[in-house]
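A note from the maintainers: we've had questions about how concatenated examples are separated. There is no special marker in the raw files; a new sequence line simply starts the next protein. For clarity in this README we add a label.
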Amino acid sequence: MVEAIPVVKVAGGLGESPAGEGLQLPGPLNEASPVTLASASTVDLGAADANTINISGSVTISSWGSARAGIRRTTVFGAAPTITHHATSMILPGGASIVAAAGDVAEWLSLGSGNWRCIDYTKANGQALAGSTPTPYVSTKQTITSGGSLTLSHGLTNTPSKVWAELHCEVIDGVYAVGDIIQNDYLTVVATTNADRGIVITKTATQLRVRFGSHANAFMALNGSGVSVALTNTSWRLVIKAEL
């Protein structure tokens, strides 16, 4: 006895394949011609009679409407609408709203229940999408207290991969003038053989915890002759920076 295998047939006789094994086409899949929809608070991408939609106008867009999960649409912008980020219903790269420009192209995936995720955004000018890289954390100028500590909330979405420190001169100190900045990416700010100087920074998903050395002069630097000199705590401020 021969068992019948159910097949999926395509209207117009393009091809057929066993059910559950995916659709096999003998030729190219030609999509419908793009349609144009005007920008509005809600633009119903799922109801469009095409996979590619030209978006006209510059009205702010907050929703792409409701569509079955898995549906994909491509939008081509003809003007400069703002697309408003929402953590659930309009998920954008970098978690920030986007101001489109004429010629920008975006691909969208429906998550169902009116929720959409942007899975690709290409700017017409070839530049990176603003906001796709989270803004680095920069602390305010912190007072240097020997033996003291700081707890700074960095506001990033995860533990930063890179943390660095800067000393900002506020009062003339030896060869250093007001406005001078000493930077070092290795967290101790300056290398020194003197004990109890420098800082240690502990990083977590939410905070940067700074501990100052207990020496009366927490930091050292090199003078104009390349000789190590102690910096006066009160002449400097510490700035901590971090990025994902």
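[label: protein 2]
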Amino acid sequence: MESFSRGEKKCYEMPPADSDTEGVDFSLRNVVLALFLLLIVRFGTGLARGIVEGNYLTGVLGLTLAFVPMVYLPLVFKRAYF
């Protein structure tokens, strides 16, 4: 809903009655969370190269950063939309 002020009174505009966005479940919070977690996955996969290079501590940290968001993100979406 959009709002505008008329003097001191705040008014809200209702969406049109023939709107076809009823089936769209869009959450900005989930989109921001998904993008943030995807950046963490990308960073984690870069660190996971440490296993190949012989730096096992960095590699295990990278694998953890890569796989934990891949498990957590579907759980968030399942709880929000199903």
